[in-house]
Amino acid sequence: MRETPWRLLAAALVGIALAGCGGSKISVSDGPTKGAPAVGRPLAHDFVLRDQADRSVRLSEERGRWVFLTFLYTHCPNECPLTAERLNSVLTRLGSRRDEVRVLAVSVDPKGDTPTAVRAFIKSHHLLPQFRYLTGTRAELERTWVSYNVVSRLGAKELFHTSLTVLVDPSGHVRMYYSPASEAAEWGDLENLLGRARS
Predict the structure, then answer these.
(1) In angstroms, rounded to a whole number, what is the distance separating the alpha carbons of residues 108 and 135?
(2) How far is CA 120 from CA 13, 20, 25, 135, 143, in A?
(3) Could you read off the pLDDT of 147-158 as tens digits, one per residue?
(4) Rounded distance, CA 196 to CA 194, Å?
(5) Which structural domain, as residue segments, surrounds residue 188?
(6) What would the pLDDT profile of 40-77 be if each residue is shown by its tens digit?
(7) What is the tally of structural domains in the chain?
(8) Is residue 175 a contact partner of residue 181, using CB atoms and an 8 Å limit?
(9) Which CATH number covers residue 192?
(10) Distance between CA atoms of 124 and 120, rounded to whole angstroms?
(11) Span 81-135, pLDDT tens digits
(12) Which residues contact 169 (CB under 8 A, 6 or more apart)?
């Protein structure tokens, strides 16, 4: 069977695993963490969900901006808040260029990510307006998870989910994958790509 670009994601991110947010995580490699370029730059799968202000958010309507797409849940004790704060820091470093970028965080916990929990998460981590925390029905969220090869399942004591962040370019194509990542990797890639777009 011919491999599609989305099937090649697994090869590009050898080591991606279900990361129990209360346990250890598996890195892509033992070396410095960096983004994995998307093979063939596939078009990012579109979806419609709702943000923390109950506004409809469609990925394709973010064309013209760079988008960090990630997958989180509000009650995660470590990895998810670290991811949120790291991406929020990238937005902060952009300064006047901040509106050229969006962070879209898709919930992997439709039961626990209530409007109250989402608002509390945003407030406690001082997330900027360009950071949109997206929720929906279980069916809506599951369609989005499947589109990005994300798995979310509840274990005996904690929720396990695929740790993944995707960088989507202004034309709507996937450029980089991170699992997990570092602010240096995400910021460096974005700064480089923004510079190329201006040249």
Answers:
(1) 9
(2) 32, 22, 25, 14, 26
(3) 999 998 877 677
(4) 5
(5) 5-198
(6) 999 999 999 999 999 999 999 999 999 999 999 999 88
(7) 1
(8) no
(9) 3.40.30.10
(10) 6
(11) 999 999 999 999 999 999 999 999 999 999 999 999 999 999 999 999 999 999 9
(12) 41, 66, 175, 193
